[in-house]
Amino acid sequence: MAQNISRRDFLKLASGTSLFGLGVLASGCASEEKQSGGDGWMPDQYHGRGDFPAQLKGRVAIAPDNAAIVRDDEKCILCGQCIEACQKVMSVHGYYPLPIKDETACIGCGQCTLWCPTGAITERPAVEEVEAALADDEKYVVVQTAPATKVSLGEEFGLAPGAIVSAQQVAALRALGFDAVFDTCTGADITIMEEASEALMRLTKKQAELPHFTSCCPGWVKFCEYFYPDLMEHLSTCKSPAAMLGATVKSYYAEKQGIAPENIVTVSIMPCTAKKFEAQREELGVDGRVDVDYVLTTRELARLIKRRGIDFSALSPSGYDSVLGESSGAGRIFAATGGVTEAAVRSLYYFATKQQPPADLLSWQAVRGLTSIKEAAASVPGVGTVHVAVVSGMAAARHVLDEVRRTGRSRWQFIEFMACPGGCLGGGGQPKSEFPADEAVRRKRMEALYAEDKGAPRRMSHENGEVQALYREFYGAPLSARAEKFLHTHFEDRSGRLFDRETQSQA
Amino acid sequence: MAVLVDLTKCIGCESCSVACKLWNKLPYGKEKSRRQKEKDLNDDNWTVIQEKHVEGENGKAYTRFVKKQCLHCLEPSCASACFSKALRVDPDTHAVVYVPELCVGCRYCMIACPFEIPRYQWDEPLPLVTKCEFCVGRLKDGDAPACVSACPTGALVYGERDALIARAHEIIAANPHYVDYVYGEKELGGTQWLYISDQPFEKLGFKMGLEEIPPSTYTHAYLSKVPFLAAAWGLFLAGMSYYHHRRAKNEKKPPEKKEEGDGRI
Q: Is the Cβ of A4 closer than 8 Å to some Cβ of chain B?
């Protein structure tokens, strides 16, 4: 060693270094020690100890396998709007005792998708599947459009609510590559043939089954299966118009065109998310073939059109394909609350009397409008006075259903139920033109539908030439054995999935 | 403070886990190198709802949703295992909190936790441990934890632990469908998150048969004497050394003649 360090120098150096090190460590201790997390954000309503009732709190439960709607947690801000829609409008959330049995309650109506401000809740998408079917040369892809989509699709392309775009919609669907474009209104006319006949039979022969409940709304049907299974016998056994048309396409139309039914893919454009659940029902199919393969909401169709770069406003109008493309005015008003009732009573009158209904039944103001519960009466010679009720919004439906349950019968013989406020025109799959879903927009859409009815060359379902041919060539008569096989369904008591009275006796 | 979880009231909406993500700014859906069989806790999920399908005594199928997060033990094993004081009990709220800047990454806490709660940031270059912090900042502001405040069905209730235990027993006494057991009341000396259920806890994935004594008490008896033992051992060795040196010196040089030094030691 060149240099010698004395013992004293070494100790000085060592102790000095240690003191400096200790100082550095001590300075670290003086800094604020903060635990991890906790610097984020929560909406205003989440202050306090959580033991007070809050107006909007949390969110609805959506099972991962929900066929109708999905949610992206990353977009959820816990605003509570979905609860508002589910509880106040639909009376589903909070209307079943806890604990749950083994299913997360959802009727699939999709009102929450309209209310969700961040777009976290949406329909379960089917655009990819439809595009794949369109790209498959083996498949003959048939599409049908619901009446409500004709007065709302334009909103997605900057048109005013209530703009009638049925001809552009057909043109857009052709541009997208669909092989045939049919009208769900035709399905609605078939529905009326069956349902008016069924209601007439109940009014005259099977009075024990009265009141007659309509069954074209899948949200309402599931609601009834969940909460009022004891009243299911009142439901019309008719399938929904979309399912009826799907079943007819895969049988009558396939036969007529010489296409193998297994190569046909049926797509429906619906204002509705519950239709996606309906399409998956096992009972909605004939000979193992499902009636409707894929359901796209109005919003999804708009997305598809935009994705393909189709200039919607520049499309030259196009008409529906024949065989299943003609519609009566009655079929066109199905999308408005009261529309099914008005359409059914028009044909019921004819079936009972073989005479045209009076003019006031062709413009039946008492069942029109957006009021949640409407009452009316129609005098049908030979049948008597038919008392009808028209209900939209399931929260309103509970009032009517509770009365039917309590009294065993009701003041009404015919009750129309639509899950969404205003009917399908306010459906959960409709464009989000107004937030939250607003009556002004619904009214515009409704007025457009009734204008479509008024302008129709034929106002009643049984006058529809294509439907007449369909019955002549295929179904025979309403409620025939073949019609029962293809156009009618049955329902399932779903209350046992929500309720278990053994464990819920205290609830 | 404490939270009572009534599993019969949970509908599986996962408001709680979203609230946790919002409040703690945790990312969603990041690809993890460690695969998990079911939805479970990880460094981005401080609380999760696990869906459990159980067969009731009557043979029927039931679905129950179980909220999982740190149970905040009254005598936390993780904190006693942590030698850098990164895990500690917050004196104001008694929440078991984690201070990342003190953590050395040894992961003793993960081995020590009897409920297997703390998770490691395996995909980070400088990983830390993560777990539920009981929203200690919210608690200090007088708010309930984020998850509790967002629960729409009242399945989560926040309050004083003794009051909640009393309430839990009242609920059980009033309804024969509940299992007569408050999970967390006695487990390992008691936890601040308490659970009641109508289905047996073991079927819902709860760890049963845990002792009522906190694990730290086993080691506390002797670990607490370690400093004294170390000091005493040092003193003993110093004494021995002094004695040995003195004897050796005495043997080599008789004391009569003393050398002159230069003043240095």
A: no
